[in-house]
Every structure is written in C-alpha cells, then in structure tokens.
Amino acid sequence: MNLMLPDSGLLFWMTIIFAIVFFILAKFGFPIITGMVDKRAKRIDEAIAAARKAEESLAGLAQEQERLLSEARTEQARILQEAAVQRDNMIVQAQEQAREEAKKIMDEAKARIQEEKEAALRDVRKEVALLSVTIAEKVVRKELSTDKGQMELIDRMIDDLS
User: Fold this and answer.
1) What pTM was computed for the model?
2) Domain segments of the chain: what residues?
3) What is the 3-state secondary structure (H, E, C) of 17-53?
4) What is the percent of the chain with per-residue pLDDT over 90, rounded to a whole number?
C-alpha cells in the first residue's frame, strides 16, 4: 500500500461523499450564507447611505449655522449702532439741559444781584437823606440859636414868598 497513491475504492467513496456534502451545502447552506452576506451588504449600503445623508445634513446645518451667525453679527452691529446713536442723543440732550440750567442759574443770579444792588442803593439814599437832614438840622439849629439868625431866616422866607 503506497501512501502517496490512494486506493481507487477510497477515491470513489471520497468523491461520492464530497458530492453529497456539496449537494447538501449547495441546497441548504449556501442560500443561508449568501442571504446573510446579502443582508449584511444591504445593511452596509444603508449605513453608507445614512452616513452620506447625515454628512449632507451636517453640511446643511453648517451652512444654516453660518447664516445664523452672519444674521446675528448683522443684528449685533445694528444694535450697537443704535446704542451709539442713542448715547450721542442723550449726551446732546444732557449738554443742552446743562446749558439751559446754567443760563437759568445765571439769570437768577443776575436778578438777585440787581435786586441787592437796588436795595443797597435805596439804603445808601436813605442814609444820605438822613445824614442830609441831620446836617441841615444842625446847621439850622446853629443859625437859629441866636435872635439875629432867626430874623434873617424869616426875612429870607418872606422874600422867597414874595
């Protein structure tokens, strides 16, 4: 018996068993295996399609995000510009109010100064009048202290009336 060359009976039975096993596998095993491979291929294709769809969706979301950021920046710039305009208006109004208030205070101060000036002039006139009356009284008393002075005063008054 040669180990390198199998016996013809053994070769015959091995061929028949191989054909039976191949037939059973072809009838029952291969359809299941090919079905599983097809299902897996289908699942992989669906996953790839879903990934592409998700990638496109992400690209769309990125564009939407960029658009929203652009709108937000534009809105922010508009709001900042409006705030600057309002700030400038408020500053102008505050300056105008300050000028009006300063003018009002100056007018009141001028009026008060004028009133005090007039009051001081009245006081000075009153003092001058009192001093004049006092001086005149002293002069008249001195002149009228003698009988001769009284007679001269009476004569002058009569002359003035005539």
Assistant:
1) 0.42
2) 8-118
3) HHHHHHHHHHHHHHHHHHHHHHHHHHHHHHHHHHHHH
4) 69
